[in-house]
Amino acid sequence: MELDEVMRTTFAAREYTGEPLPDAVLYRILDAARFAPSGGNRQGNRVIIVKSQATRAALARLAEPAARRYLAQIKAGENPWNTLVPSKVSAHQIAATPVPAMLVEPYLKSAVVLVFVVDLHAIAALDQHLDRIGIISGASVYPLVWNVLLGARNAGFGGTITTLPAAQEPEVQKLLNIPEHYAVCAVVPIGKPARQLTRLKRRAVEDFATLESFDGKAFSG
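Now predict its structure.
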């Protein structure tokens, strides 16, 4: 596939045919994805390839608490897990919220689940002293994650970035024998998509790119 087509058609695939992902194909995907940039080229990333159904079921269970809060907040009209606006949703409401299959089945029905972690010793968190949640250090891991998804799409497979299990990071670390100084960044199920989306809905360039300042003139080609 042409690069433009891959970028325009890589969608969040959550339903799979059950077709296996050959190790040789996954290796090629990772071999190309490893050229993603990272801070200082320190390459503090690790990828754990999870095939065991028991381990995947455990990851699905670990995703459920965060999923309950996510859905309860949406039902209440909130932006879930937001760091600026405190939630008014009660613990009782969260506990009473069912978790739909679509949020946990990808872990169980994909060909493989990839768990991405990053060595906290290797990152540069330039926003660590700002009065907000830190996000800069993600630049050292998420380019790799996205490269993997682009590579999967190019190979005829697909997946999606999920982060629900990360809310239970200590338990994920224990489950996968991850050292404490590694942060859990993404849990990515990958498989052969049950259907292919080719027309994704995204904002036009003019809606998110401006000239010279945040409130500058919309950029157009």
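The domain at 3-207 is CATH 3.40.109.10 (NADH Oxidase).
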